[in-house]
Q: What sequence folds into this?
């Protein structure tokens, strides 16, 4: 199969390799460049998977520390490698922790709604969507979050999760159907 | 079914093969004839719209319209989540908690790395070397 990697992605990979080489030769501060480059999408992934900003921060921190400690072992794309560390961190957390209800901590989220009623509606929607997401099997939730919250393409998702586009489409479709069944009555 | 109508389907088939008109065709009122329906958006269309493969479906009614409205609302919420960024203090916290790792050791070839032996290992190695020495002496002296 012919692999076509976009030019900007090749540049990004090269830039990452350059930063990694700097860190490995003792420039510890260069690691912050990698954190700034990849923290946001990884944080969104952890937040979507766990539903808790505090937990997402902890998973992000542990993942970057792990990545730093094993930086000499990176082969290929750093972003894909560190994504797998975060994704596994989320799955481990979900395996170990059983929580009955999770929602965003309102203090952590910026608000800019026109009026209190609208804010109340959106806060409720946010909380309901979180609760509904948490009822989904992990693989469906992961696919939905990557597609809709992280805005990734199916090809990118397939690359990161080492699976096929068809399988991921199926997971996303099933996740949508499950969410719709849970929430449609209230929000349609 | 009347006996006269028994072979009606076959006769229709023969007429069609011969390129003739179907019985009743052209004579039925226009309103009764089958006409192809305009494409109706199904749930599959909504999935394809959500996947970014097609534009937003239009002209929906009933359940389909409700589904579309539902996903518009969900899309607003997921769009908002897509703008969430890492709290600014997190990067500094990560940098402050990085371990003191010497990568020069990690990336050096094995023969250049420091060797750390426990006392038990040293004793075992000494016994092994002594035994080998004894064996060698026996072989030499016959």
A:
């Amino acid at each position: 199969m012919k692999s076509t990697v976009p030019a900007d992605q090749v540049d990004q990979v090269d830039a990452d390799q350059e930063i990694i080489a700097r860190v490995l030769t003792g420039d510890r501060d260069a690691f912050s460049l990698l954190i700034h480059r990849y923290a946001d999408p990884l944080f969104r992934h952890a937040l979507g998977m766990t539903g808790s900003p505090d937990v997402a921060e902890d998973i992000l921190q542990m993942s970057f520390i792990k990545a730093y400690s094993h930086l000499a072992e990176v082969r290929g794309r750093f972003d894909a490698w560190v994504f797998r560390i975060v994704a596994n961190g989320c799955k481990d957390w979900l395996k170990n922790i059983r929580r009955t209800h999770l929602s965003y901590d309102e203090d952590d989220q910026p608000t800019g709604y026109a009026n209190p009623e609208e804010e109340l509606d959106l806060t409720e929607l946010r909380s309901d969507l979180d609760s509904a997401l948490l009822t989904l099997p992990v693989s469906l939730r992961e696919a939905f979050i990557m597609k809709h919250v992280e805005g990734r393409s199916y090809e990118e998702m397939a690359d990161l999760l080492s699976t096929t586009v068809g399988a991921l489409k199926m997971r996303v479709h099933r996740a949508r159907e499950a969410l719709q069944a849970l929430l449609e009555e209230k929000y349609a | 079914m009347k006996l006269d109508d028994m072979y009606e389907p076959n006769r229709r088939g023969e007429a069609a093969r011969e390129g003739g008109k179907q019985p009743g065709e052209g004579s039925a009122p226009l309103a009764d004839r089958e006409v192809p329906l305009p494409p109706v958006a199904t749930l599959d269309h909504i999935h394809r719209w959500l996947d970014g493969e097609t534009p937003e479906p239009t002209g929906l009614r009933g359940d389909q319209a409700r589904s579309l409205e539902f996903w518009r609302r969900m899309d607003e919420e997921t769009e908002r989540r897509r703008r969430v960024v890492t709290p600014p203090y997190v990067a500094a916290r990560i940098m402050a908690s990085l371990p003191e790792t010497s990568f020069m050791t990690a990336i050096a070839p094995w023969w250049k790395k420091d060797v750390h032996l426990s006392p038990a290992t040293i004793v075992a190695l000494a016994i092994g070397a002594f035994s080998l020495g004894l064996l060698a002496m026996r072989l030499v002296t016959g």
Chain A touches chain B through 48 residues (CB under 8 Å). Residues 100-114 of chain A have pLDDT under 50 and may be disordered. DSSP finds eight helices and no strands in chain A. Residues 3 and 167 of chain A are 19 Å apart (CA to CA).
